[in-house]
Specification:
It comes from Dethiobacter alkaliphilus AHT 1. By secondary structure, the chain is an alpha+beta fold. The protein contains seven helices and 14 strands. The structure holds zinc ion (ZN).
């Protein structure tokens, strides 16, 4: 199953220049070979198919070296597009191929994924020959990117349509299980079943290494070669950490979606954020946001329900056994407590996750 994602691109000046060159070169190649094909048919009744055109393009590039400055896959794609136009014409699905005009309101070119040449790095989209382009990352791309169409509007705005191959989900049997999740810092998540989910050790190790590299970088002299080296090393490590985290969150979200028909969480950023702002900023923000997103779209795939309870719901302070509220539990350091009303013993996070589940089911109208 293919899924298309549309993003606004914000290329810098030099990236804009290369994109514009690519648009122009693709148009040129398309028109040039359309002309060649018409001529070949007129004069010698020969059909120049894609293979012949592609072979000829190599020769043409020697004559017109500016064609080498742009994405070669995009140029080949123009030839394929031309071939498709011809096929459509022959099969009476469309009129005879038209020459492309530079005055067309929408200019675009398409390029294919080859050897990981297209990828998302943070808030940048890496495109062949263009480099890392800033883009409005409105959502995560799921699955494997197969191609990207870069478009330029008449008003000079740039967009990318990213096509990804998303694995087709098998339908799941309805589950009778429901779970509440308390997201935190101590443990990544505590489930209403009592299970505490910790971040993997590999992640903690990679993060420690990252912090060490950050300190090392700050000691290097500005503008020095060594500083540049350290910066590259740091960027690679950042990516490593992000990949480990993403992989872990994928596995966890898939597992939770498979096991449960209903998943309830809090909208609010996890408790404890105030206490350790820097840590939570670095580790938490990205993880929790990504995790919630993953749960949402996987729920959509598999017909599960993910519900966020009201942000002012005091999940930690309510006794999940009798429902009375104990305001003393606001104190984050209290990990265990006994309900003064019904004497039930509580683990702070497990109690909270049970309450989140209960509240979620009430809000969903599944219990009174
Ligand atoms: Zn109680």
């Amino acid at each position: 199953m293919h899924k298309a994602y549309n993003f606004r691109l914000y290329p810098n000046k030099s990236q804009q220049t290369v994109i514009n060159q690519t648009l122009g070169s693709c148009r040129f190649v398309y028109n040039y070979y359309l002309d060649r094909r018409i001529e070949a048919y007129k004069t010698v009744k020969e059909t120049l198919n894609y293979t012949k055109c592609a072979a000829n393009l190599k020769e043409l590039k020697k004559e017109l070296p500016w064609l080498k400055a742009v994405d070669s896959i995009a140029l080949q794609q123009s030839l394929r597009d031309l071939d498709v136009s011809y096929k459509n014409f022959f099969q009476k699905r469309a009129g005879f191929p038209k020459f492309k005009s530079r005055r067309n309101n929408k200019q675009s070119y398409r390029t294919q994924m080859v050897n990981n040449n297209i990828k998302v790095m943070g808030d940048k989209l890496v495109l062949p020959k263009i480099g890392a382009v800033s883009f409005a990352k409105s959502r995560e791309i799921e699955g494997n990117i197969t191609s990207v169409t870069v478009k330029k509007t008449a008003s000079g705005k740039y967009f990318a349509s990213v096509l990804a191959d998303v694995h087709t989900p098998k339908s799941l049997k309805v589950s009778s299980q429901k779970v509440g999740i308390d997201l935190g810092l101590r443990d990544l998540a505590v489930l209403s079943t009592g299970e505490a989910i910790k971040n993997p050790k590999t992640l903690a190790e990679a993060e420690r290494k990252l912090q060490k590299m950050q300190r090392e970088l700050s000691r290097k002299q500005k503008g020095s070669k060594n500083r540049n080296k350290a910066r590259i090393k740091l960027a690679i490590q950042h990516e490593k950490v992000a990949n480990i985290r993403k992989d872990f969150l994928h596995k966890l979200s898939t597992r939770l979606i498979h096991e449960n028909q209903v998943i309830c969480l809090e909208t609010l950023s996890p408790k404890g954020m105030m206490k350790n702002r820097r840590l939570s900023k670095a580790i938490g923000d990205a993880s929790w946001g990504t995790f919630k997103q993953m749960l949402l779209y996987k729920a959509d795939w598999y017909g599960r329900t993910v519900h966020f309870v009201d942000r002012f719901f005091p999940s930690s302070q309510i006794c999940s056994a009798c429902g009375c509220r104990n305001k003393e539990i606001k104190d984050m350091t209290i990990r265990q407590w006994q309900c003064p009303h019904c004497q039930a013993l509580h683990q702070r996070d497990i109690n909270a996750s049970i309450n989140i589940l209960q509240q979620g089911l009430v809000e969903l109208g599944m219990i009174a």
